[in-house]
Design a protein that fits this description.
single chain, 451 residues, alpha/beta, Rossmann fold, 7-stranded mixed beta sheet, 5-stranded mixed beta sheet, 16 helices, 12 strands, globular, binds glutamic acid
């Protein structure tokens, strides 16, 4: 339900951003949370503040030509949406995936703005990427694509302007190629212009682990409000990228048992608990499909592979679900199955992985639900720590960095929980995250005038 004062704002967003369902979904969810805020503080309706928050400051779309290994010229489309810079330089990842279009990047940039505000760090929100599909491409092709992409993007970036990082399809290898090209074009060793760099050229310890660790810390804090912990819990983590792998690691450290992971080809179940080293070997070293895990481990003893389309990973009974693959991967039917099987908590490692119907089902069933913009903020928060280290030409220990990450996640949890309580819905982390993120961005925007 959306407040009648906010309905015209949503209508305008729907009209102006035709054919962008994910962006509509993200905006609708935030506006649904803001009804109680504008009732209590009607001045947030002044100066078209909320309309301005829904309109990106700048949207850049460009051609990315590159030459494949066969000598053929390929064309992709590049994007950067610089959504909001009230709290700091635009900050947010780059996604390389065939599904990328302007609507996807806008939804991600919008979410990022509130997520970054929740971290309490001085970072605005942005997102970018390309419809380039890295699957099956050689290192040489990836490098040439990244160089061409950066040849246009570099003029829009800068340590004080816009600081990209990774997302789906963009990891350490791609960041390295893009940083190399940025350095070459600008003749500046400006380490703070990209985050997610490798350690030996200005990266931060714990950045790779941060999103997965952070989500696990968040769920731990959420469970603790009900005097529960990960100890002995069955956990399902979708995805098998960076976020999923380091969620598996932290959940195991906290005494939980992760029994399933997935990729776009299907999911695997290992009732004895996922073998983390094997998973890393398959995904990080071999860059192979998830079924390879079983080929290496050997089937049987409670381990099997299910092909995509046959059944959903969310049909696997578990106590805690951590969707860490992509947007709208967890549907209403999946949520009902999880609830039926007794799920207790959900922590979103990906951006907007649960459909609105799924979120509603979790909340109506009393399942603790942590939305991505709060639960997965550990990645970008650690990017901000990387920027801090770059600015001071320092390099922190793993422990020091993880301690900061853990305390940031606890803070975000407490902020969301406290805000939900203040606005009359204790335990509603969606409401808490949206309101707390909004208020920070809105206050800064107000102070800066109509720009
Ligand atoms: N792509 C990540 C996210 O969705 C990280 C962004 C960053 O580190 O800038 O938050």
């Amino acid at each position: 339900m959306i407040d009648e004062k906010l309905q015209p704002i949503l209508n305008q967003v729907l009209q102006r951003n035709h054919g962008e369902p994910e962006f509509h979904q993200a905006v609708r969810e935030v506006l649904e949370s803001l009804g109680r805020v504008v009732t209590k503080h009607p001045d947030y309706l002044d100066q078209a503040l909320i309309e301005r928050i829904c309109e990106p400051e700048r949207q850049i779309i460009f051609r990315v030509p590159w030459v494949d290994d066969k000598g053929q010229v390929q064309i992709n489309r590049g994007f950067r949406v610089q959504f909001n810079s009230a709290l700091g330089p635009y900050k947010g990842g780059l996604r390389f995936h065939p599904s990328v279009n302007i609507g996807i990047i806008k939804f991600l940039g919008f979410e990022q703005t509130f997520k970054n505000a929740l971290t309490g760090m001085p970072i605005g929100g942005g997102k970018g990427g390309s419809d380039f599909n890295p699957r099956g491409r050689s290192d040489g092709e990836i490098m040439r694509f990244c160089q061409s992409f950066m040849t246009e993007l570099y003029r829009h970036l800068g340590e004080y302007t816009d600081v990209p990082a990774g997302d789906i399809g963009v990891g350490g290898r791609e960041i390295g190629f893009m940083f190399g090209q940025y350095k070459r074009l600008t003749n500046r060793y400006e380490a703070g212009v990209l985050t997610g760099k490798a350690l030996f050229y200005g990266g931060s310890r714990a950045r790779t682990e941060a999103t997965g660790y952070g989500n696990t810390y968040f769920v731990q804090a959420m469970l603790a409000t009900k005097k529960q912990s990960f100890e002995g819990k069955k956990v399902v983590v979708s995805g098998s990228g960076n976020v999923a792998i380091y969620s598996v690691e932290k959940v195991q450290e906290f005494g939980g048992k992760v029994i399933a992971v997935s990729d776009s080809s299907g999911y695997i179940v290992d009732e004895q608990g996922i073998d983390l080293e094997l998973l890393r070997q398959v995904k990080e070293v071999r860059r192979a499909r998830i079924s390879e895990y079983l080929s290496l481990r050997g089937e049987g003893r409670g381990a099997y592979f299910v092909k995509a389309g046959q059944s959903s990973i969310w049909s696997v009974p578990c106590d805690v679900a951590m969707p860490s693959a992509t947007q709208n991967e967890l549907t209403g039917a999946d949520a009902s199955a999880l609830v039926k099987n007794g799920v207790m908590a959900v922590g979103e490692g990906a951006n907007m992985p649960s459909t609105p119907e799924a979120v509603r089902i979790f909340q109506e069933s009393g399942v603790m639900f942590a939305p991505g913009k709060a639960a997965n903020a550990g990645g970008v928060a650690t990017s901000a720590l990387e920027m801090q280290q770059n600015a001071s030409r320092d390099s922190w220990t793993f422990e020091q960095t993880e301690t900061r990450l853990a305390s940031i996640m606890r803070n975000i949890h407490d902020t969301c929980a406290g805000t939900a309580e203040e606005f009359g819905s204790p335990g509603d982390y969606v409401l808490g995250a949206n309101i707390a993120g909004f208020v920070r961005v809105a206050e800064a925007m107000r102070a800066l005038g109509v720009i």
